[in-house]
Specification:
With about 270 residues, this protein is an alpha+beta fold. It has three helices and 16 strands.
């Protein structure tokens, strides 16, 4: 896709690319290769959380098989497969020196941000991985949230990265991206700033090998977690995704994800 102005893209397509843009910065070196997408011609309409909904009404994200698989320029793709397990839809992610993601555009205004519920199971951690280091930033599981905000606050470096993302994907870097991750060593509650840009930050929700091969369920306060990670209030949530990658460590990794639910609150 050639670069195009923001106004030239319909809103639903801008949101569709938003989460992918962060993945490009996360994993790819400078390249002009056009990203390959599945169902790119008909991206799904952003799933809104209606401002009129009463507090604490759950918005259930679309089933994983309706999400879009984004393949990163110059990267081997992670394999995603879909099945039912213990009465719930799950997605199995298998990475072999690869990196790609599933994503879904959403639209949750800042005033309605509440909680996110998700689950995953990991059989084994990546021994060589360190998410604070550029050359070893891999993970068997990530839950990814992308937010709107004032890009005029970007540093020169982040502005340049945003332009790179625009050139590759047709969309700029999201204002802020929060990832929930499982870290080898850092304790739960730690915040890891991405080695390439401080606009991507990872919040550790699981640490070490204790709970490997078990389904783990989480319920997180999105507003509070964003505030902890970035030191400011969040803007609108415009994309969610899951990502399993092992391209930097050139290893194999494997993980399962359960459904993601958002809970809107006033």
């Amino acid at each position: 896709m050639s670069p195009m102005s923001k106004t030239a893209l319909p809103l639903r397509r801008r949101l569709a690319h938003c989460v992918f843009a962060l993945a490009v910065v996360q994993t790819v070196a400078c390249t002009s290769t056009t990203p390959k997408t599945e169902a790119a011609q008909n991206p799904p309409t952003p799933a809104p959380v209606d401002a009129a909904l009463p507090a604490k009404v759950a918005f259930i994200a679309a089933p994983f098989h309706t999400w879009q698989h984004y393949r990163l320029p110059g990267k081997k793709a992670t394999e995603f497969s879909f099945s039912q397990l213990n009465g719930r839809e799950v997605v199995e992610a298998s990475a072999n020196s690869s990196a790609s993601m599933l994503r879904l555009p959403v639209r949750v205004e800042a005033a309605n941000l509440g909680r996110i519920k998700f689950s995953w199971m990991v059989p084994e951690l990546i021994a060589q991985a360190d998410m604070a280091m550029r050359q070893s930033d891999d993970s068997p599981v990530r839950v990814v949230l992308a937010f709107e905000g004032d890009r005029s606050k970007f540093s020169m470096k982040n502005a340049m990265l945003s332009e790179l993302s625009l050139a590759i994907t047709g969309e700029p870097l999201p204002y802020a991206t929060l990832m929930y991750v499982w870290c080898n060593t850092r304790p739960a509650g730690s915040v890891i700033v991405n080695a390439r840009t401080d606009r991507i930050r990872k919040l550790v929700v699981q640490s070490g090998a204790k709970d490997l091969s078990h389904w783990l369920d989480y319920e997180r306060n999105v507003r509070a977690d964003f505030q902890q990670a970035f030191g400011e209030a969040p803007g609108a949530l415009v994309g969610i995704g899951i990502m399993t990658d092992s391209d930097n460590t050139q290893t194999k990794t494997h993980g399962w994800y359960g459904p993601l639910n958002l809970v809107a609150e006033k």
